[in-house]
Amino acid sequence: MKSDLEDLFKSAKPSLAQVIGASRPLPELKPRVRKTSYLIVVLPIVSLLVVGGLTALYFRTGRTPASSGQTEPPTPPPRPAPAYFATETSRTITVKKQDRSQFLRLMEDAWKEHERQGTVKRIAVNLQDGPQERFATPADFFSLWRLAPPSGLTERLDPNLMVFIYYGASGNRMGLAARTREPERTLAQMLSWETSLVASAAPLFFDERAETVVAPFEDRTWRNIDWRYLKLSQERDLGIGYTVFPVGNVLIFTTSKEAMETVINRLFDAR
Asked: What share of the chain has pLDDT > 90, as a percent?
């Protein structure tokens, strides 16, 4: 400080303000930190943390926080596969897989419905299997009816089962159709089932009563399609018929002659 005053007096006569300023040490100036520099560094870090947190929450819960209060849209019910042949009408019945009594009740209700003579109605059986819904396969159908087909028959059939009711002149008749991967083996198994098929298929007749039959199954032909038939009444069109339609290898099972001939006609039309 002394050297500063001496230099001041050597150069010129100082004023009082200059003397006071030279004798008092100047305060150390601290650099001013700009707030914008902090924002440039902090904002990108905060943004990354927020985006990372939302991304983790999305993958954990399957939805964003904004949608946490919204319910997931219900899963639409399954749709039946295309029919093998044309039908005039259709009906879908929904039953629990283990509720056989409900299945039988709804099937009987569909069977008793009045339709125009010659009508074919498709019955789509929608099964509630726990939280899932699906349409009945041949194995499901036989199980619900408590039919006992030959071992391996259902494994050769396509899962797309078509159940139908034919409304004929002498009553309503049940039927089913399904593609087979091995038509020759399927026909052989149906032939082996003939000895017990009357007793097995009795539930498909509902309140119809078959007569005592002594004659065996016989060969029939309709439009050059061979099929097997067991006549169960002399007065009514009631019986058991089956064949494998060669175009598409579709196994057809009906409970009347008229129903079989109608289905064969429609399969020809569907080609």
From this structure: 61
CA angle 206-164-251, nearest 5°?
105
Domain ranges of the chain: 35-67, 89-269
The model's pLDDT over 177-209, given as tens digits with 9 standing for 90+, comes to: 999 999 999 999 999 999 999 888 999 999 888
Give all strands (DSSP E) within the chain, no chain letters.
Answer: 89-96, 119-129, 132-135, 162-168, 171-179, 218-222, 225-231, 239-245, 250-254
Distance CA 63, CA 55 (A): 10
- Tokens linked to 207: 């309140």
* Residue 190 one-letter amino acid: M
What is the per-residue pLDDT for 43? 54
CA-to-CA distance for 149 and 74, rounded, in angstroms? 37
Identity of residue 67: S
Tokens at 90, concatenated: 């259709």
CA dist 125 and 99 (Å) reads 13
Q: State CA 10 to chain mean position distance.
A: 105
Greatest alpha-carbon span in the chain: 150
Conformational region of residue 150, where left means phi above 0, alpha means psi within -120 to 50, and beta covers everything else: beta
Cα–chain-centroid distance for residue 229? 36
Looking at mean pLDDT, say which of 2-11, 22-31, 144-153 comes out highest.
144-153
Residue with tokens 């639409």: 76
Pairing status of strand 89-96 against strand 119-129? parallel
Q: What is the pTM of this model?
A: 0.72
Q: Which residue has the higher pLDDT, 253 or 15?
A: 253
Give dist(CA 109, CA 158) in Å, integer.
Answer: 27
Task: Flag whether pLDDT at 58 surpasses 90.
Answer: no
How far is Cα 151 from Cα 159, in angstroms, rounded to an integer? 16
Q: Please give the full DSSP string across 143-171, using - where no structure is assigned.
A: HHHT--PPTTTGGGB-S--EEEEEEETTE
